[in-house]
Amino acid sequence: MNWLTNYVRPKIRALYARKEVPDNLWHKCPSCEAMLFHRDLEENLNVCQHCGFHMRLDPIKRLASMFDEGDYQSVELPKSVVDPLKFRDQKRYTDRLKEAQTKTGRHDAIVVGSGLIGGQPAVVAAFDFGFMGGSMGIAVGEGILAAARTAIAQKAALIVVPASGGARMQEGILSLMQMPRTTIAVEMVKEAGLPYIVVLTDPTTGGVTASFAMIGDIHIAEKGAQIGFAGARVIESTIRETLPEGFQRSEYLQEHGMVDMVVHRRDLRPTLSRVLTLLMQPVLAVATEALPAAPAAVQTEEPRSQAEAADETPSQAGAERAGAERTGSEQAA
Predict the structure, then answer these.
(1) Which of 79, 308, 327, 328 has its CA 20 to 30 A from that of 216?
(2) What is the pTM of this model?
(3) How far is 56 from 45, CA to CA, in rounded Å?
(4) Would you state the pLDDT for residue 332?
C-alpha cells in the first residue's frame, strides 16, 4: 500500500493535474489591443505584427539585433558615485536604485557594446527605459564618455540609442552637468573624424533631447517614437493652443526637418550598414594615407669579378675608354 500511495498515485495525479499558465505568454498591444504570443513578439523585435506599433525593447536584445550575427563585446563602464546628494523623497534614492538594479539586473540605465555593423566597426550605447525611466545621471554620463573614448580608440563609429525621460532629478544639478559632459564626449568623436549617429526611440525627451541626442551627424528614428523636450500637455497649457495631430512623433519631426529618416525596427541594421559604409570611407582613406610608404628599391650595379674583367676583350675595353673620353669632352665643352 505504501508503494501505491507514495509512488503510483502521485504519478497519476501529475499526469492529469491542471497546469498553471504563466502570465507572460500573451501580451496586449497598447495601440490596436491585439493579443500577441510572446514568442511571435520576440521574433518580431517587440513590434506588433498587426498594426506595426513599436514597443520598448530591452537594451541587450537591441544590441544583439544591431550587430552582425548578434555578436558584440560588452564595454565595461566605470563606477560612479552613488547618491551624492543623499536625496530622499517618498523613498531613499539608494532604495530606488536597488529596486531598479534588482528589476533589470544591471548597474544603471545604459549598456555599451562594440562590434561590427555591416562589416564596419561601431560602438553602440543603448538606454534602458525600465531603469528609472532611462533617466540620465552621473552613471549614464560616464557611460556615454566611455563609449566615446572606446570609439576613438577603435577608430569606430559611435551610435547612441536613447530611450529616456530626461535628467535624473534625484541627482539634482549633477545630472544637469551630464548635458555638457556628453556633448563634449560627442565633440571628441567628431574631432577624431568619426561618424556619430543617433537612433531615436520612444521616448526621447528632456535633457537627453537637449544635449547629445540632437547633435548627431544623422538622426534615425523608429516609427511612432515620441521625441521632444517638454511634454505635449505642458506645451498646450503654456501656449494655450491645440497641438497638431502627431505632434512630437517621428513622422511629424521628419516632415519638419528634425529627423533625417524614419525606419522600421527590422530595417534598422540594414539602414545603419548602408550609412556606415558611406560615412566610414573617408576614415578608412585617411587611415590608409597615414600608413608609412614602403622604401623604394635602389638598383646598384653589381661589381664584376676579376675573372670577368680578365675575359673582357681589348676591343671592348677600348670602346668603353673611347666612350668615356667623348663624354668628358662634351661636358668640358
Answers:
(1) 79
(2) 0.80
(3) 9
(4) 47
57-280 under CATH 3.40.50.2300, yes or no? no
Give, as one character, the DSSP assignment of residue 107: S
The per-residue b/e assignment along 256-279, b for 16 or more CB within 10 angstroms, e otherwise, is eebbbebbebeebbebbbebbeeb
Domain parsing of the chain, residue ranges: 21-55, 57-280
pLDDT of residue 55: 96
Judge whether 170 and 211 are in contact, CB under 8 Å.
no
User: 250: which 3 cell numbers?
Assistant: 517621428
Question: Residue 24: its pLDDT value, please?
Answer: 73
Query: What does residue 58 show for φ and ψ, rounded to 5 degrees?
Result: -60, 140
- Which residues are documented as binding site? 29, 32, 48, 51
Annotated binding site for Zn(2+): 29, 32, 48, 51
Per-residue pLDDT, 165: 94
Tell me how far CA of residue 32 lies from CA of 39, 48, 53, 226, in angstroms: 19, 9, 8, 18
Low-confidence ranges of the chain (pLDDT < 50): 298, 300, 307, 309-310, 312-315, 317, 319, 329, 331-333
Predicted pLDDT of residue 285: 72
- 189 and 148 Cβ atoms separated by less than 8 Å: yes
Q: Which three cell numbers stand for residue 155?
A: 577608430
Helix residue ranges, H only, the chain: 2-3, 9-16, 38-43, 59-66, 93-104, 138-154, 172-176, 178-191, 206-209, 232-239, 250-255, 268-289, 306-311, 314-332
